[in-house]
UniProtKB/TrEMBL annotation:
Domain (Metallo-beta-lactamase) ranges: 15-83
InterPro entries: Competence_DNA_uptake, Metallo-B-lactamas, RibonucZ/Hydroxyglut_hydro
Cited PANTHER family: DNA INTERNALIZATION/COMPETENCE PROTEIN COMEC/REC2 (PTHR30619), RECOMBINATION PROTEIN 2 (PTHR30619:SF1)
Short name of any one Pfam family annotated for the protein: Lactamase_B
Organism listed in the record: Bacillus toyonensis
Domain of life: Bacteria
The organism's taxonomic lineage, starting at the top: Bacteria, Bacillati, Bacillota, Bacilli, Bacillales
Protein name as annotated: Metallo-beta-lactamase domain-containing protein
SUPFAM superfamilies per UniProt: Metallo-hydrolase/oxidoreductase
Amino acid sequence: MSAVKIEMLPAQEGDCFLVSIGEKDKINMLIDGGYKETYYEHLKPRLVEMAQKGEKLDLVIVTHIDSDHIEGIIELFKENGNSKKPSIIPIKEVWHNSYRHLQFKVDEKAKLDFREKAILSEKIAKGYESRASKNESVNQNKEISAKDGSTLAALLYSGEYNWNTLYDEDAINYDTKDMVKVTGDITFRLLSPDNNRLERLRRFWLKELRKDKYNFKLTDDKIFDDAYEFFMLNLDDFQQSDENTEISSKEEKVDINSLLQRKTSSDTSPVNGSSISFIIEYQTIKMLFLADSHPQLICEKIKRLKDEFSYNTYFDLIKVSHHGSYRNTSVELLSLIDSSCYLFSTNGKKHNHPSLETIARIISREGEERKLFFNYPLPHDYFSDEQLKGEYNYSIESPTENESTVIEL
């Protein structure tokens, strides 16, 4: 039996990973939860199966607030109830950065006035409506507040979960603690976010509030957590356009050299930039999980590891950032890291992820054979060409529909 098992669940265009480490005293980690459907169709049955075997989730990591990462997590905590008497599975620790972790200077004595409460309630209402399914109607006159308990922050509060306790209940933050021992032989090396990325997100949220009221008071009222989460979930991925649009669907082959020469932009989303990204180390095994992180920040932290600690940045597994978008996997980043195993989590139905440029950048480098793992059959089949596989020394692994992709190390 392998010491490490990674399950990449079908999560549409989102992320949902189960990581199990060890054999006798197994440690289980859940990294993101995909969409609501991901939870009910795939994740919940696995968690029930694990619980029946006496297993628990030692760590749940919510990398950032985005529907394709957090919706399934919200459903899990809705159903799981109180941490002391869980209905689905015991959960030991949760990592999640919410409003309370953005280091706002709050006035503990101040109280929100009527207009401020109305502004926050409106943001909650808009987010609530956008989350409602197409078949569900939302009562426009219903007062929506923190009491609804439908945000992850509210569920963690009411369920009394251990929340960021390995960071003393502060933000999961590189500049606070860049290395954490989860157990005696499992270490996390944090790469993102840092103070700068959290500050950008803080300013982004504050600017939004002060569009409506220039002197908006900040308090520690729990309604801020809910308004913040609903607002972030309601954001459109404004800078994302469909990728791979210049490749005709009728073309049988891609020109790798042409893809490598294309000029591409970088991701500037403050939400993606705040992603919790990390290296998991277990014995001699190292796994790099990049969430939707910005490549510039990851490059900076990887360079520091190499320069200060002579760290070997060849990984046993790399989860590619942002579903394989070229905006999140730069040439510079790939000059610093490598692996024989790359994971792409997407069904390709949003923004045509993964980008052809990203795959070309990965396979065009010299080295041993690289395996590209997908959790859906490739939406564009350009790289399944046997001649390309032979020339660039790579293989493609993908499941049939609605099956998890399993990697054992």
